[in-house]
Design goal:
By secondary structure, the protein is an alpha/beta fold. 30% of the residues lie in helices and 27% in strands.
Length: 503
């Protein structure tokens, strides 16, 4: 099935069911579909055609979803943008995928003002008031268009979304995801997760991540209500769980930690809340136990990645308290195997690279045939993540993709940060690693060689990074050292930097 039809079909079957609750407003499936149709028809009137790229920089909200489904209905390709990226990073993506029209939220206008924009961006549309010249109001954009289905023929194997992931070489890579792959992934989530009408799910992650937009699609297929916030605030989230009688929450480990720190948490009526679904970062058993013992919530661990539209493995509900820090078993339509350096499959309990085969593997990386060939071999996606499968088929994630840092559910690659720091004239060499962080799990730390030049201070380096990088990529700490440890071939030995006492 094509993604645009998912919403159309649900609106036909159960038009009056709650689809979305946002900012104290409830949207039925019929209303959400009609608004998506208006946006789709407005895009057609603007001259947007099948295959055209649509950039989207917004906080969570109904407009994000309307644009997502509208693009899907007319065969345009959505390019969701991480709101934490710096203006130069955003410009790179817009240019890399040749975006034609750019939607953004009013809350992000200060960032948008600093963007340069490639020449191919013909239209800018703002959801909310804008002070920028030449920007179209989203409300006005859809006001005169029709509610009817646009009637564009879209194929399941057409490109639906290009979702960018951080790159080990310093540039993000666009994972090309089809309608068929995204729909397959959402069906796997429905098989694995405990959704049932009339459940309500509080979704506390950003729609620009596959780990949250794919589950929302699953909610539409199942016909259950999703409750969202534009910005996460722990006490407000807890009040929503209580007031809306939420049974399922979808977030990340850092969010669950913050909820458990809400003052007088036990004073809230949270008997309705049964499951916290927490993809995107390691889930320590101490957190699982605290959530269960204090408020009776089961924390469900998931592992996945953008390149397969999200789902890779999940922990079964009945196993959550029995196997601490396990990433569960493969989803129903997912095959996982562990391979050695030669690509050969390893026996149980052996550590190696995690590879995945499923119907929802990406087409490849946009404009990067060499990276695609390296990642997809004989139908298997080589994830770069290190792990093991035990004799019963349970997956354990043991290491990061190369030197990747996972901070609050966000993937951070040191090469991106190192590239920016080396732009400072007096700095000749730097290495970045992840160090433990109480709030976010991990945070970047930069080691800088002193050399023989006068170096800027830590505050100046951090301020420079803030102008160039998303906030979660900015090093929390800077350490100056005489020489970076290196191998005989000259490669920095980051394992030496991670030794006890260094962080």
């Amino acid at each position: 099935m094509v993604i645009g039809k998912v919403l159309s079909q649900r609106a036909l079957i159960t038009p009056d069911r709650e689809a979305l609750v946002f900012n104290n407003r409830t949207f039925s499936f019929k209303e959400l579909n009609q608004r998506s149709n208006k946006t789709a028809n407005a895009l057609i009137d603007l001259g947007i055609r099948q295959g055209d790229r649509i950039g989207l920089l917004m906080l969570n909200g109904n407009e994000f979803l309307e644009i997502y489904f509208a693009a899907s209905k007319i065969g345009a390709v959505l390019v969701p943008l991480n709101i934490r990226l710096a203006p130069p990073e955003l410009d790179f993506i817009l240019n890399d995928c040749r975006v034609s029209v750019f939607f953004y939220g009013a809350a992000l206008e200060e960032k948008v003002k600093e963007m340069d924009y490639p020449a191919g961006v013909r239209y800018k549309i703002c959801a909310g008031p804008s002070s920028l010249p030449g920007v179209i109001s989203y409300r006005e954009f859809i006001s005169a268009s029709k509610y009817v289905e646009p009637g564009i023929s879209v194929d399941e194997d057409d490109l639906n979304v290009v979702m960018y992931t951080s790159g080990t070489t310093g540039h993000p890579k666009g994972a090309m995801l089809t309608h068929r792959g995204t729909y397959s992934a959402c069906l796997d989530l429905l098989i694995g997760l405990n959704y049932l009408y009339p459940d309500r799910c509080l979704l506390l992650g950003p729609f620009f991540h596959s780990g949250f937009i794919t589950p929302f699609l699953g909610h539409v297929v199942r016909g259950i209500c999703t409750i969202i916030m534009d910005r996460f605030e722990p006490e407000a989230a807890v009040r929503l769980i209580q007031e809306k009688r939420v049974r399922l929450m979808l977030g990340v480990t850092a969010i669950m930690k913050m909820i458990l720190q809400v003052p007088d948490l036990e004073s809230y009526d949270l008997d309705c809340w049964e499951i916290a679904i927490l993809p995107g970062s390691p889930l320590p058993y101490s957190l699982i136990k605290e959530a269960h013992d204090r408020i009776g919530v089961l924390c469900q661990n998931l592992w996945g990645l953008t390149e397969i539209c999200g789902p890779g493995s999940l922990m079964n509900i009945e196993d959550i308290l029995l196997l601490p820090e396990c990433a569960g078993k493969p989803y129903f339509n997912v095959d996982i195997r562990i391979v050695g350096p030669d690509g050969g499959q390893l026996p149980s309990d052996s550590t190696g690279e995690i590879t995945v085969r499923c119907p929802n593997v990406m087409q490849g990386y946009l404009n990067r045939p060499e990276d695609t060939a390296e990642a997809i071999r004989d139908g298997w996606l080589f994830t770069g993540d290190m792990g093991k499968l035990d004799k019963d088929g349970y997956l354990y994630i043991l290491d990061r993709k190369q030197d990747m840092i996972l901070s609050g559910g966000e993937k951070v690659y040191p090469a991106e940060i190192e590239k920016v720091i080396l732009e400072m004239p007096s700095i000749t060499d730097v290495a970045v690693i992840g160090v433990p962080d109480e709030k976010w799990g991990e945070a970047p730390k930069a080691f800088i060689e002193r050399g023989d030049k006068r170096l800027p201070g830590p505050e100046e380096i951090i301020a420079f990074c803030r102008r160039k990088l998303a906030g979660y990529k900015v090093p929390r700490r800077i350490e100056f050292i005489d020489k970076l440890p290196r191998s005989p071939s000259g490669k920095v030995l980051k394992r030496e930097l991670r030794k006890e006492g260094r962080p």
